Amino acid sequence: MEKYLNLAKKFRLEGTPETVAPLGAGLINDSFKVTTKESDKPDYLLQRINHNIFKDVELLQNNILHVTNHIRKKLQAKGETDIERKTLTIIPTTDDKLFYFDGESYWRVYLFISGGKSYDSITPDLAYEAGKAFGEFQSYLADIPEKIEETIPNFHNMEFRLQQFREAVAADVAGRVAEQPEIISEIEKRAEEMCKAERMGREGTLPKRINHCDTKVNNVLFDNSGRILCVVDLDTVMPGYVLSDFGDFIRTGANTGAEDDADLNNVGVNIDIFSAYAKGYLETAKFLLPIEIENLPFGARLLTYMQTVRFFTDYLNGDTYYHSNFAGHNLQRTKAQLKLLQDLEKNEAKLNEIIKSFNK
Ligand code: GN1
Ligand code: MG
Q: Ligand 1 pocket, 236 CB below 6 A?
């Protein structure tokens, strides 16, 4: 704890940091809540940035600064109050940097958002609110003047993810390929279709916009009355197809089971959540082109497929990317994602109908 308190003191904090406790369920960064002694001073979120994944921390932090400053301006223009809880606030170091390097790890601090709750499983009412929040988030960023760079190159590029998967199969470093012929064939048989967004991008029919690129259900904070407080986890805000942001929420928020459910019978698409989220999203994302709206159900399949490929690739590589809680965790995650994908496919006609019904 002493170590973390000393790290916190490298930043421009108000008040005296007193305790530090681990926080959250992220698969990439490590987060800690720093509580200050004085009750009238804010608390803080201290994070170790996963530098293996975010190679350019300077670029990462600059992106987040631009994004949060831009959103703050939009909130002010709308006459919002309580802005410190509605967007993240980066706390600089005592020498005015956006992160601190201790010789080994990179650290950053945000204001802690008090009273925010995140959920791994939600109701249709919360999904509707989340849909509106992510639609608004994309609308706010539509006119950001600064250039927002890719913090992870090719992050949601399906062609690139398939290439990594095929390289992992060829290298077979962990000797796991021979045991999994079905999963490999399930991935390969959808590969062509799943690269549709990249093809449309090249043809110029599908635009890139500034996306969140990690719209997991637990990346929105709700207040006690079920209203959206804040969209968090801004590490991957970057240009992409809106299908990604829509799809990743459905993948996580509209799954009747867990992302890594051991019992595949639990896993499937919750149509009410899909519908509520789509309704909220379409109400606020007024900039969407017909081709983007039409492809939203494809986005749900795409991101579920992409996550299947990414978890499985990590499994084949010997579990080096995602935090794993037990041996075989990435394989279990892969199977659960594949099951969800199959259920999304079964319900394709229904999901298309729902989107059409909101788009009259
Ligand atoms: C990671 O950090 P977290 O848990 O919000 C990952 C996402 C994956 C997700 C799978 C930078 O997100 O892309 O979809 O795990 N983030 C990164 O749960 O790779
Ligand atoms: Mg997260």
A: yes
